[in-house]
Amino acid sequence: RRERQRFVDKNGRCNVQHGNLGGESSRYLSDFFTTLVDLKWRWNLLIFLLTYTVAWLVMASMWWGIAYLRGDLHEVRDDTYDPCVANVYNFPSAFLFFIETEATIGYGHRYITERCPEGIVLFLFQSLLGSIVDAFLIGCMFIKMSQPKKRAETLMFSHAAVISQRDGTLCLMFRVGNLRNSHMVSAQIRCKLIKSRQTPEGEFLPLDQCELDVGFGTGADQLFLVSPLTICHEINSKSPFFCLSQRSLRSEQFEIVVILEGIVETTVLWGHRFLPVMSLEDGFFRVDYSQFHATFEVPTPPYSVKE
């Protein structure tokens, strides 16, 4: 089989890159939270670590700065001296005080005295800033971990689509299954045909998208996906495959994208049908996933529906 450039890979990733955005790239910063969620995990973790590290160092420097400006770092410590923060002698001790305050550890060795109004104001600012940073970053990580992208790993699509007759009508069919015991009730499936075409006016439309009817009018697109289902697209006069025959299929260039909690491109086999995967055993129905992708040839006219 000769390789060709896909618009959508088998794993659902779209091969589209945005370039020459110019001033439009600032739109990503206007919705920075969504941009952060959409980043890859390695960048999220890097931003997470850098944000906390920088915030800790800045706040520790501010506590050290207060002690330095008040002369607490140079004064002789005795029972009569009342510093802004007790037992802060240098930057490491100021950093430890900040960590103890931020994490509410409270060892009791370092504390703010009542004669330091600037320390009290900085403590309030630190509490507000820490709450905002925690809410932003932890919320971002939670949303990213709860995204359903990995759910698609347990959704199976047949490697190939088949074309054969069903109820006297030529149909394009493919199979979809759910590996998890958690049922996908009210799941909806859609199909898109992606194919370049030229309009009667001479306009060329690259990667034009056309909807494939898989039961929208009858409700068959609403799936009760507790066992593998065969999705059927009836090839009639309204179908984009109305003129497709077995001979023309070999030279056609198109992609079929199936949308069900994920996107997968399929290939097409003319004159094939899926092997059964369900059997009745002792009080239950057994699904044999070893035959999930298996097909077999059936007598099917090699002509298009139009022919």
Rg (C-alpha, Å): 32 Å
What's the CATH H-level homologous superfamily of the largest domain?
G protein-activated inward rectifier potassium channel 1
Topology, number of strands: 14
Largest sheet: 8 strands, mixed
Helix content: 25-40%
- Any idea of the CATH topology of the largest domain? Immunoglobulin-like
Number of domains: 2
The N- to C-terminal Cα distance equals: 28 Å
CATH architectural designation of the largest domain? Sandwich
Structural class computed from helices and strand pairing: alpha+beta
Overall mean pLDDT score?
81
Please tally the helical runs, counting DSSP H or I stretches of 4 or more residues: 6
What does this protein look like?
- There is one protein chain.
- It is built from 6 helices and 14 strands.
- With 307 residues, the protein is α+β, with helices and mostly antiparallel strands.
- It has 2 domains: 108 residues, Orthogonal Bundle (Helix Hairpins), CATH 1.10.287.70; 146 residues, Immunoglobulin-like (Sandwich), CATH 2.60.40.1400.
- Helix 2 crosses helix 5 and helix 3 runs antiparallel to helix 5.
- About 2% of the residues have low confidence.
